[in-house]
Amino acid sequence: MQLPYFFEPLLQADDTFYTLSESTSKHCVQVLRMQMGSQLLLTNGNGLLATVTLTAPHKTKAQVKLDTIQQQERSTRKTCIGIGLLKNNTRLDWFLEKATELGITEIIPMMTEHTEKNHFRQDRATAVLAAAMIQSQQSFIPTLHEPIPYHRVIEESTYQQKLIAHCEQTPKTELSQINIQNEVQLLIGPEGDFSTNEISLAEQKGFSPVGLGTNRLRTETAGITGAVLLTLKNNNI
């Protein structure tokens, strides 16, 4: 039987005992009705995986003893998606969830010319990533940035391979036909797509234009499609 699995970002490899967060404590004690001696799995989202035993049940500050600790190795592949901010938080959450499940390692919310909403709740987004990481049984949470202006994203990119997906009727290569390198960054536009000027600036900075198929996709759907194609090309699934 698989042990219950939780995200505890403060967990460290040299811990002997550890006090669970209020949310994890509540779920273990009040929802799962775990008793003293029950076992569970914890990760700090940075590859640390620990099997622990509940030693002091408490609804807000339960304590556990660490039994075994493993430091998982992070893949050498780095996959980043920069995505235009969306008005609808639920749609952005959907992208964040699926991108995490697919193994995207870095996510950059972008403020572009056509972005209609710049408000972004980092705490809400991080909670979505953490839940998706746990659901998909991973031990690394994607790096999530605060919203960054588009011009900074393209100017500061250090990725080996830089791609931009857009809807303009100009020459581009389908992402499904591209050989993906070890480090790749893909930019996805907001509702209304990138502006012509933004596309031109990206190409000047070394970004190659790519297509995501013949249909015009919503931003979050384009982001997930890109994540799927990059993951498949990286042979992760």
From TrEMBL:
Enzyme Commission code(s) on record: 2.1.1.193
Enzyme class: transferase
Domain Ribosomal RNA small subunit methyltransferase E PUA-like: 22-66
Gene Ontology cellular-component annotations: cytoplasm
Protein name per UniProt: Ribosomal RNA small subunit methyltransferase E
Family under the similarity heading: Belongs to the RNA methyltransferase RsmE family.
GO function term, MF aspect, one: rRNA (uridine-N3-)-methyltransferase activity
Catalyzed reaction equations: uridine(1498) in 16S rRNA + S-adenosyl-L-methionine = N(3)-methyluridine(1498) in 16S rRNA + S-adenosyl-L-homocysteine + H(+)
Location(s) in or outside the cell: Cytoplasm
